[in-house]
Specification:
Blueprint: E1 3-9, H1 16-25, E2 34-39, E3 45-50, H2 53-62, E4 67-72, E5 88-90, E6 98-104, H3 110-119, E7 128-134, E8 137-144, H4 147-159, E9 173-179, E10 186-193, E11 200-203, E12 207-211, E13 217-218, E14 223-227, E15 233-237, H5 287-309, H6 313-341
Antiparallel strand pairs: 1-4, 1-12, 2-3, 2-4, 5-6, 6-9, 7-8, 9-10, 10-14, 11-12, 11-13, 14-15
Length: about 350
């Protein structure tokens, strides 16, 4: 679980305090790896990724930018190193623009997507080698990379129409900052999500805000939205992973987990409609899917025990993050099932 905040001040004043204020509201989403892209007073972008909270706060305190894309993470696929922090830069000759992409979620088919991307000539910037160092010996293990880089590449390919959908499967909320290759200036902000992760949008008198737990309404899933240079908002259909029929996401319904509630309230504008009564509610709990999650959890627990026996502590830590995510998904299903029995 990670957090995304994009904020643009309409009056051109500094956005740093407003970003930090919203970060503290959703700080529980991650404090192990930070990054931002800013639109500076010179009209050009400034990109930074750091490991520690104090570092990012100090840098933000000095920022004079009126527009900032900020990300904070809970590592799941790679450790807390700057190379794995977001926003990730995606650049390739086949792309008309460069992109900085922030992602919240976990991707299940990143190895498959990485192979497909490498055939197209992409080189993963987050790839690194796992190692365990003991007294007198270094053990090397398989390569690792940030699974978010897979969905980031798929996302920008779909934005530019070089793919008809985002092929990365898993939980995704995404914000992409498009940059001109020659002048390095901002050329638009794009954002989307699927049902598994929240992303809100607000256009107020003073700000435009996109975030995981900010003010505003949830955007509809499987739609690409973008902010044009003139401030107008565009949208089109975009399938992200696999479509699921679910009720609307209510971050207050199940505490910090987020979840689905049947209050009957409708989300207008960018959001999609909630159901008016429980008789119309689609039950997202599927016993077969739940059993798959249980099987995956058992496999991860076995791999963790094996890693412990082999003293492969980095692998054990990586698997812990995966186990936490599976437990989170299972708890979401269980809470939904309990709700439907009320």
């Amino acid at each position: 679980m990670c957090g995304i905040i994009y904020l643009k001040r309409k009056d051109g004043k500094k956005a740093n305090k407003s970003v930090l204020k919203r970060y503290h509201r959703q700080r529980s989403r991650g404090t192990d790896g930070f990054g931002y892209v800013t639109n500076g007073g010179d009209g050009k972008t400034h990109w930074l990724r750091v490991q520690k909270e104090k570092e990012i706060k100090d840098k933000l305190a000095d920022s004079v930018a009126s527009e900032i894309l900020f990300h904070h993470r809970t590592p799941t696929s790679v450790p807390n190193l700057p190379e794995g922090a977001h926003p990730l830069k995606i650049s390739h000759d086949m792309l008309e623009y460069d992109y900085y992409v922030a992602h919240n979620g976990i991707i299940r088919n990143d190895e498959e997507r990485k192979k497909a991307h490498e055939k197209l000539g992409f080189v993963y910037q987050t790839e690194m080698q796992k190692q365990v160092i003991t007294i007198g010996k270094t053990y090397s293990y398989e390569k690792m990379w940030n699974d978010s880089e897979a969905v980031a590449i798929d996302f920008v390919l779909a934005i530019e129409g070089k793919a008809d959908k985002v092929l990365s499967k898993g939980a995704s909320a995404l914000v992409a900052w498009r940059i001109g290759k020659a002048d390095k200036k901002l050329k638009g902000v794009f954002f989307a999500r699927n049902e598994a992760n929240p992303l809100k949008y607000a256009d107020t008198k003073d700000f435009i805000v996109i975030g995981s737990e900010t003010e505003g309404e949830l955007i509809a899933p499987h739609k690409l939205f973008w902010l044009n240079e003139d401030g107008t908002l565009g949208e089109r259909e975009m399938l992200i992973g696999k479509k699921q029929e679910t009720r609307y996401w209510d971050t207050n319904a199940l505490g910090f987990l987020g979840g689905y509630a049947g209050s009957g309230t409708k989300l207008s504008g960018l959001g999609y409609d909630a159901y008016e009564n429980d008789d119309d509610v689609y039950d997202i709990v599927d016993d077969e899917d739940y059993q798959v999650l249980k099987d995956e959890r058992n496999d991860v627990q076995k791999m963790m025990r094996r890693a412990l026996v082999e003293s492969n502590y980095e692998k054990e830590e990586s698997l812990k993050a995966e186990l936490n995510f599976l437990n989170y998904k299972m708890e979401l299903y269980e809470n939904e099932k309990r709700y439907n029995k009320l």
